[in-house]
Amino acid sequence: MKSIIRSFSVPTEFCLVTFIGFGITIAGTLVWLIDHLATIPTGPTALRLDNAGIMEGVVLRVVTLSIVLWIGSVRGWSLATFGLRLSWKGTVAGVLLFLAFLLIQRLLGFLTREVFHSTVDFHRAIALTVPFIILISIVNPVFEEALECGYFFQALQSRGMWITVLASATFRGFLHANMGISGFVFMFVEGLLHGFFYWRWRQLWPLILAHALQMLYSLLPRALAAS
Questions:
Q1: In this structure, is the dihedral angle defined by the CA atoms of residues 187, 83, 81 and 71, taken in order, positive or negative?
Q2: How many other CB atoms sit within 10 Å of the CB of residue 100?
Q3: DSSP assignments along 164-182, one per residue
Q4: Phi and psi angles of residue 204, each rounded to the nearest 5 degrees, phi first
Q5: How many domains does the chain have?
Q6: 157-160-165 Cα angle (round to 5)
Q7: How many Å apart are CA 2 and CA 82, to the nearest integer?
Q8: Gap between the Cα atoms of 131 and 105, Å rounded
Q9: Helix or strand or coil: residue 87?
Q10: What is the pTM of this model?
Q11: Residue 107: what pLDDT?
C-alpha cells in the first residue's frame, strides 16, 4: 500500500486527499445545489445543530484527518510541514485576524442583507451545550485550516499566489454553499483573508485560533442564552 501511495503523482495525491477529506461534504453540497438550482435561497438560512450532529462531525473529521496525515507521512509531509507552531506572536496574529474578520463580517452582513436579502441564522443551533461547542471549535478549525489552507497551498503553490489563494477560498465557500449566498460570501472572504496571510507567513496556528474564536463567538451565546 505504501509503495502505491509513494508512486502517486501530485495531482493524483491532491484528488485522493481532497476526496478523503471532503468527499462526503462535496457530495452533500452538490446534492443541495442541484435541489436548489432553480431557486437559490436568498432569505435567512437557518443552521440546525445539536450535540449529536456535532459529535458525528467531530468523529468524521478526526478519522479523515488521521487518514490524510497517514498518507502525508508516507508522502513526506505532515502538519509540521504546513507550519503548525504555537507562539505568542502567532496567538496575537490569530486574535487580530479574528477581529479583522469580525469587522469584515459586519460589512458583508449589511451588504448581503441589502443586495441578496440573505443572512445566516444561528438561532436554530438547538440543544447545544458548552462542552460540545468547545469540542467542535477545536476540532473543526484544525481540520479545515490544515487541509483548506495548509494542504491546498502545498499542492498548488507552484501555480502562484493568486491561483492558490483563489482556489482555496472558492473551495471553502463552496463547502458552505448550503448556508445560502451570505454563507458562501462569508466563507469565501474568510478564505481570502486566511489565504493571503498564510501565503505570506506560512503559519497555521493564527488561522486555527481565528477560526476557533469565530465559532465560539457565533455559537456560545446561543448555548448560554438557552441555559
A1: negative
A2: 13
A3: HHHHHHHHHHHHTGGGHHH
A4: -85, -30
A5: 1
A6: 75
A7: 22
A8: 26
A9: coil
A10: 0.90
A11: 83
Cα 61–67–71 angle (5° rounding)?
Answer: 140
Q: What is the pLDDT of residues 166-184, one digit of tens each?
A: 999 999 999 988 877 777 8
* Chain CA centroid to CA 66, Å: 17
Domain range for 206 is 2-226
Q: Average per-residue pLDDT in the chain?
A: 87
Give the pLDDT confidence of 200-212 residue by residue, as tens digits: 999 999 999 999 9
Which amino acid is it at 83? G
C-alpha cell at 58: 467531530
Which residue numbers in the chain have pLDDT < 70?
Answer: 37-48, 110, 112-126, 222-223, 225-227
Using only C-alpha atoms, the chain has a radius of gyration, in whole angstroms, of 18
Phi and psi at residue 7, to the nearest 5°: -80, -10
Cell digits of residue 214: 469565530
